[in-house]
Design brief:
The protein has 617 residues and is of the alpha+beta class. It contains 23 helices and 13 strands.
């Protein structure tokens, strides 16, 4: 699917960047699985919404590696969800919950996965829909204080799952009552009346005849940005078999003695939640794919759209510098996210090979997420924010056309806005990372280079961010040390600064991945194409960050003043390569299915319309 005009070496490098170690035939398999371009809210005739969604989940599952463990091939898992996001954002969200959180929990947290084979087979084949029930509606940071109970019943040999009051109801996309649904429910385990920490339990929510006994769901909670079936769920003394406890090494002896290798409630929660790393590691690939598609469409529109402004009637939008900086900057940011997707995948792959005993252990703050994996939580937070901004910028630069549902930009924007809170609240993650960077104390100083690389180099922005993070860390540590005695009184006035430090750390991860990608590019012609694009990302990012950078003196006013002119020179270097870049970045037409992606936008939009006319007399 990569352009034939590129050398075979360049195509191989781009395939590795986009798909990692996946086989060359993999994009074709993805294309086939998703090519109908349907949405979960537009089922085939005679098929319910729930049945249609199951069919789509099953088709997506066919491109995943065989077997029940979806984490067996991180590259393929991330790429499959990335393509799903471009084709159908609600499907992508449903698939992340279904394959990563639900099936991933069964495969990774069960001590007896063979006894869960029927449930895993049903999920793997799309005969049942997977649901993950973690968030409770009645309090903030509910992940840190789960109140849903799972009481061990020594007489029956299983557990009794119960919602103690309405505030402990779970929020989830579990309203698809007309198909079988398998839930992974996070609940606080009690044995002999003692709290043993938060574990995951497998619970059949619905079957062929609707809700299972003891399950109660609310009326639907509508969410237009991601039209899935959200409800609140309560449990009324639901019996759960012992084998449906995802015990992750913990056990209850015949005499009722409880043993957990985690050793503490905090580490237990981190271990139970570690399947979330798959979602965080996949999110940069998803953000990269939707950003590439959004930017390619915006460039395509700007090349075609003729303006009638009095400065130069008839010139295309792309002739204007203001348009170039935004839409070519969007291409550059999409490329940076693509490099970050590879970086996140490598971090996750390494964590999968580490023993469970080595995971977790960091103190929790506002959320458990940064303690589970600081870099992966940071990748998630920065990726969804970057993608939301790229998509919003592209939407605005496409005028009215950017807001039409048929062009998908609104759907991509809604998806990433939703993931600002979903999958771990991004702002809380960044607060936690900034606080943790200060609390861990000074790190060993790395001698800076004699001088920063030139501003037109992809290595310039990582160097600026390194200095900025060091300055922010020292500054925040001084303010912490001058604060009051209690942790709340110390950190309450410093949260915004902590969040900025956390965002600097996350942004630096992306910038580092981008520079390493350029350093590792072997094909000289490909490097020549990608280098100005990579540098443009750094220059436009620095301009957006100019306020914080100037405030602490990381950049001087004259440095910031020069950035627009540098961006214009880099745009000039990118412009000759636009046909190739948009061909590489855009997905096949029947996957994106947007008139904005067409060679002739006006004709493509007209083909989506039907006309009604009343004849004149």
């Amino acid at each position: 699917m990569l352009p034939a005009s590129l050398s075979s070496a360049a195509r191989d490098e781009l395939h590795q960047l986009l798909y990692g170690p996946c086989e060359p035939s993999f994009p074709s398999a993805l294309h086939k699985a998703l090519a109908d371009g349907a949405r979960p809210d537009v089922p085939e005739a005679g098929t319910s919404r729930g049945g249609h969604l199951l069919r789509r989940l099953g088709a997506l599952g066919e491109v995943l590696p065989p077997g029940h463990d979806p984490f067996a091939d991180p590259a393929r898992l991330a790429a499959a969800h990335a393509w799903a996001a471009v084709a159908d954002p609600p499907l992508c969200l449903a698939a992340l919950v279904h394959y990563v959180l639900c099936l991933g929990s069964l495969a990774r947290l069960s001590d007896e996965p063979g006894r869960l084979a029927p449930e895993m087979a049903a999920l793997r084949s799309g005969r049942a829909k997977g649901v993950y029930l973690i968030t409770e509606v009645g309090q903030a940071n509910s992940h840190l204080a789960t109140r849903t109970r799972a009481d061990f019943d020594p007489a029956g040999g299983g557990f009794v799952l119960h919602t103690p009051d309405p505030l402990a109801a779970k929020f989830a996309g579990a309203g698809t009552l007309d198909v079988p649904q398998t839930g992974v429910v996070l609940a606080r385990l009690f044995t002999s009346g003692a709290d043993r920490g938060v574990f995951a339990f497998v619970v059949a929510l619905t079957g062929d005849e609707g809700l299972r006994p003891g399950i109660e769901v609310s009326s639907p909670l509508r969410l237009g940005a991601l039209p899935l079936d959200y409800v609140q769920v309560r449990f009324h003394r639901v019996r759960v078999p012992y084998v449906h406890w995802l015990s992750d090494g913990a056990r209850i002896g015949g005499d009722g003695t409880f043993h957990d290798p985690a050793g503490s409630h905090e580490v237990r929660l981190q271990r139970t939640l570690r399947v979330g790393q798959g979602l965080w590691a996949s999110m940069p690939a998803i953000a990269a794919a939707t950003s590439r598609q959004s930017a390619a469409q915006a460039v395509n529109y700007a090349r075609q759209r003729r303006t009638q402004g009095r400065l130069a009637p008839g010139v295309p939008l792309l002739a204007y510098r203001a348009q170039q900086r935004v839409v070519l900057g969007g291409l550059a940011d999409a490329f940076a996210l693509t490099c970050a997707a590879r970086g996140a995948r490598e971090v996750w792959t390494e964590s999968l090979s580490a023993p469970a005993e080595s995971e977790g252990g960091a103190a929790m703050g506002f959320t458990p997420w940064a303690a589970v994996s600081r870099p992966l939580a940071a990748y998630k937070a920065v990726a969804v924010r970057m993608a939301a901004r790229v998509t919003a910028d592209c939407q605005r630069r496409c005028g009215f056309s950017g807001h039409l549902d048929v062009n998908r930009l609104a759907a991509y924007l809604g998806f990433h806005h939703a993931f600002e809170a979903a999958g771990g609240d991004s702002q809380l993650i960044l607060y936690d990372i900034g606080r943790a960077l200060v609390e861990q104390g000074p790190v060993a100083a790395v001698p800076p280079p004699a001088a920063d690389p030139p501003v037109t180099s992809p290595r310039w922005w990582p160097a600026v961010l390194r200095r900025h993070q060091e300055v922010l860390t020292r500054r925040l540590a001084r303010r912490r040390d001058a604060g009051a005695a209690s942790p709340f009184d110390v950190w309450n006035p410093l949260l915004e600064e902590a969040g900025l430090l956390g965002e600097t750390y996350a942004t630096r991860l992306v910038a580092g991945d981008l520079a390493r990608t350029l350093d590792g590019t072997r094909d000289a012609a490909l490097a020549e194409i990608l280098e100005p694009l990579a540098a443009l990302h750094g220059v436009t990012a620095a301009h957006r960050w100019s306020g914080p950078l100037l405030t602490v003196g990381t950049l001087r006013p004259e440095d910031v003043e020069a950035l627009p002119a540098v961006a214009d020179r880099l745009c000039d270097a990118v412009l000759p390569h636009l046909p190739l870049l948009t061909e590489v970045f855009a997905h096949p037409g029947d996957i994106a299915a947007a008139p904005l992606a067409a060679t002739d936008y006006n004709t493509a939009l007209d083909a989506t319309l039907t006309w009604t006319r009343r004849e004149t007399a």
